[in-house]
Amino acid sequence: MIELLKQLCELDGASGNEDAVRAFILSQIDGFCRWEVDALGNILAHKKGKNPAKHRIMVDAHMDEVGLIITHITPDGFLHFKTVGGIDTPVLLFHRVRFAGGFYGVIGGKPIHLTTGEEKKKLPKIEQLTIDIGAASAEEAAQKVSVGDVCVLTGETVQNGTVVKAKALDDRVGCAVLITLLKEESDFDFDASFSVQEEVGLRGARVAAHHLNPEFALVLEATTAADIAGVPPEKQVCRLGEGVAVSFMDGATVYDRVLYQAALESGLPVQPKRGTSGGNNSGAVHLSRDGVRTLALSVPCRYIHSASCVADVRDMEAQLCLARWMIRQIADGQLS
Predict the structure, then answer these.
(1) Per the omega criterion (within 30 degrees of 0), is the bond before 171 cis?
(2) CA distances for 284 relative to 47, 128, 195, 235, angstroms
(3) Mean of the pLDDT values across residues 233-249?
(4) Same structural domain, 191 and 48
(5) Residue 144 has what pLDDT?
(6) Which of 66, 141, 203, 214 is found 20 to 30 A from 253 (Cα to Cα)?
(7) In this model, does residue 116 exceed pLDDT 80?
(8) Which of 98, 121, 153 is the last residue of a domain?
(9) pTM higher than 0.90
(10) How far, in whole angstroms, is CA 272 from its chain's centroid?
């Protein structure tokens, strides 16, 4: 699965521009399941299992990643931008970005020897940052870039032991697991969605859930891990290498208690996500139609929404094993 993950992370797919990711996923799952692409760009798939499921199950992972969108070109060829999804300013400073045309830029700012004493005490606002593509004028920049074009932060994918560093681990880890589930034999039928535009408001999953009309849903995600220097133990929401993180509540969802407890008692590498901030596609899925019993299964990820996300392969394998186990339990009527 790690090679599949590397291929997925190398693809660029900011929210609303998931075309390359979608094409790759379709090349992987075609022939292993029935699939269609809806008007918004979600991939909706049906996996035929050895047995019909007693309950309709949806498994979701989002294809999109955070990025930047160009809003203005200055007379001297620099590009103003807004973020697509949540990105902290420190992540942006002096970082390389890649556009769909295959060319690069750098997010510029004042070097430290040009900043005043007061400027050194605070971060610049995003409005003060620009992307430098080496153009000397607006006319020269316009030969490559237009207002509305999108780029992403770039980062090399590397593996050190069980740890992987890459861009877009949120949520290409979930995509890799869901592809794997669709390509292997399944004991029971289930539906899957590779959804778009999660980073800008859970939009694709809302449409996908309405179409698939599940009774139960599993949302495969990556979530913030705070097991880093300077963070006290009680603030470390989840930790790398300790298994898939299951949520009891966050800013968008109060999760199904039966599913949550079953995951903790599964005997697989699982840890509770000890925090209630943020949200994911569960927030849209569980409110679809008459309501959907939902659980999020998340891979802990350090430095999320950056070009240097860090996660542990063992947690990804735990996510795969738990998703497979939960599908069987729900489909067989063991969880109700």
Answers:
(1) yes
(2) 22, 34, 12, 27
(3) 93
(4) yes
(5) 95
(6) 66
(7) no
(8) 153
(9) yes
(10) 19
Does any domain span residue 162?
no
Q: Is the pLDDT of residue 278 over 70?
A: yes
Choose, from 119, 127, 139, 198, the residue flagged as catalytic. Answer: 198
76 lies in a domain?
A: yes
Secondary structure percentages of the chain, helix, strand, coil, to 5: 30, 30, 45
Rounded to whole angstroms, how far apart are CA atoms 221 and 89? 23
Residue-range definition of the domain harbouring residue 258: 2-65+167-331
- Answer whether residue 159 is part of any domain: no
To the query of whether residue 198 is one of the catalytic residues in this protein, the response is: yes
Q: In this structure, is residue 281 part of a structural domain?
A: yes
State residue 236's pLDDT score: 87
CATH number at residue 186: 3.40.630.10
Answer whether residue 288 shows pLDDT above 90: yes
187 with 100, same domain: the answer is no
Residue 140 has pLDDT above 90, yes or no: yes
Q: For residues 153-169, give the mean pLDDT.
A: 95
